[in-house]
Amino acid sequence: MNTVTNHKPMEILLVEDSESDALLISKTFSRTQMKFNLTVIKDGVEAVSFLHKEGQYDKMPRPDIIFLDLHLPKKDGFGVLAEIKSEPNLRNIPVIILTSSNSQEDVKECYQNNANCYLTKPTTKEDFCHAVKVIEDFWLNIAKLPLN
Amino acid sequence: MIFLKSFTLITLFTTDQLWGQNLTWLHGTSSIAIAITYYFVSLLIVYVIHLRKDITFTLFLWLLVFFLLACGTSHIISLENILHPNYWLWGYAESFTAIIALVTALGIFFFIPQILNFPSSQQLKEINERLNQEIAQFQSLDQKIRSLNAQLEKKINERTAELKQVNQKLTIEVEERKQIASALHHQIQLEQLIGYFSHRFINVTPTELDSTIEEALTSISEFVGIDRSYLFLFSKQDHKFQVTQKWSVPEVSEASDWDQNIEAKLPWIMSNIKSNVIVNLPEIDALPSEAERDRFYLTTHQIQSLLIVPMFYGTAVKGILALEAVNHTNYWTERDRQLLKLTGEIISGAVERCRQAAELAHRTQQLEASNQELEKFAYIVSHDLSEPLRSISGFSYLLQEEYESRLDQEAQEYLDFINDGALRMKALIEDLLAFSRVGSQNLVLTLIDCKEVITEVISNLQAAIMENNVQIECETLPKIVADRTKFAQLWQNLIANAIKFHNSESTPQIHISATQESQKLIFAISDNGIGIAPQYTKEIFSVFRKLHNPQQYPGTGIGLAICRRIAELHGGKIWVESTVGQGSTFYILFPMH
Question: I want to staple A128 with a disulfide (CB 3.0 to 4.6 A). Which of A105, A122, B505, B559 is the partner?
């Protein structure tokens, strides 16, 4: 069992412009046993501000894990990923790409930019629930994440 | 004198001797007369010998002379003996004469045949007559010979003249033949040259076209010995003939304004050209009166000879080939003209072919681009469709989960329809994506063992095979160069289809084989399934084309479209032969690399 889940809720940042997808993801997470705080940010620039604790985000916690969509307004997921992985104090946060794209070019580019995992958003509810369950099991329960 | 003295002495002594004077005189006179006669005859014979050198028996005549001299002398000595008797002397003279007489007699004996041979005057006369006759004959013969000789000479002269004439004719003929041979040689060389370029033009690529035309123009111009040559091609854009290639001998400058509106400058010539008529002007003066404008232009440019050949392709004039001489008059034979026309046609054919090839390449490029765009579009569409689909599917699920107690039976059913629709849409989108991906990815060609790949595919489908109790037979298959993943995908779809559309009344059987034909490999996969009606054997290869409803046979109908795409990407094709209720055989042709 991950120590993080035992003590305090896990801080999850979801960078997702689709409201429906964001709601689906949060609903699916909420059906699990884990304790977490989910913050949803809808564009790339905001996501970077959030991570740098700029402006309204100065009181926000550092996320333990980031779920990042690639198709985002203002700054796309690749840009956000590059920013995260170039910041020494951010680069150890696991970044899971969660996108509709299953293009090999996108997959390659993300891993090239040190993404920790690449997942394609499942279309149906069964696949979606299954995927969220697997993410929870692996990233939030099995995998050891660095502590803040 | 001696003789007279002697005779006087005889006269003197006889009076005193036994003999009477008269008797002495008788003896003396007779002896002297005989002796004189002997001597005279001797002299006559000597004279004859002297005159007739041809007498063969001269020795005999000389013997006779000696004999006569001896006889004469003997008579004188006998007379002397009468006057002064000396019988010894007389005896000696007598014996001497006797010896000579004997020798002469012997001579007569030996010389008789020769003497007898000596012709008589009668004989000589006859001989002479004969000779005269012979001479006359000879003369007549001689005359005949002379006349014959004259005739012969005449004939010889005639024949010589004839021969001379024949010889002259022959010389002319030889000269003519030489000219013909030289013309023939020229023609053969020109034909070879044109043959060579015809071969070049058949295989010419659009990029080599200009340089090949230029090379042909140069070679042919140099060969026919003209000063300048031009190739005009008809431009569809400008509706004008434009010079595309030109050539001139170094010492002759180009006619700079040929390019500009040749039709206005040479109206008569161009009207002929458009009627597919070769304009042959060895001398510009030969132009008819209605070609005044043409003449004016050509003479102001010092053109002496001109040959303009139309270049036809089909029924349209595509260009013209113009050959000019400015420093000399040039004559072209009919054969030359026809050969140059042929050259023009070969060039226009090549130009047209290259134009068509370029057009085809352009169209293919456009098609490829639009195809790529379409594939990209399919990809984007299917990708963008998945997000709303996720919403539909996700929230219908949430509705069912979270609002179950508040929804009545009917609402629950509607939600089920939404879920089913979403599921089918998901399958469609995924298949569309798969289809577009097949075309958008480049082929990775490697040498693959077909049997190995198909065995792998069969093992992937093991669950379905076991479930339906399918018997699969796969013959020995060769190795081919293909994209391994796509090749496997093709077989995955075909075998899965053969299992899916099995006939429930018999044990499903699948047979896979391949036959090799020159440069291609034809695979066949036969089953004993439900079969396909003949009217559908083509359309089943279209995207999302299904012959059954999803309740009977699930699936979107993309499988065979993907198979066709894969076969086509490899330069091959796929088709089916089938009998409803008995089974189908799918054939897949792969070209061998």
Answer: A122
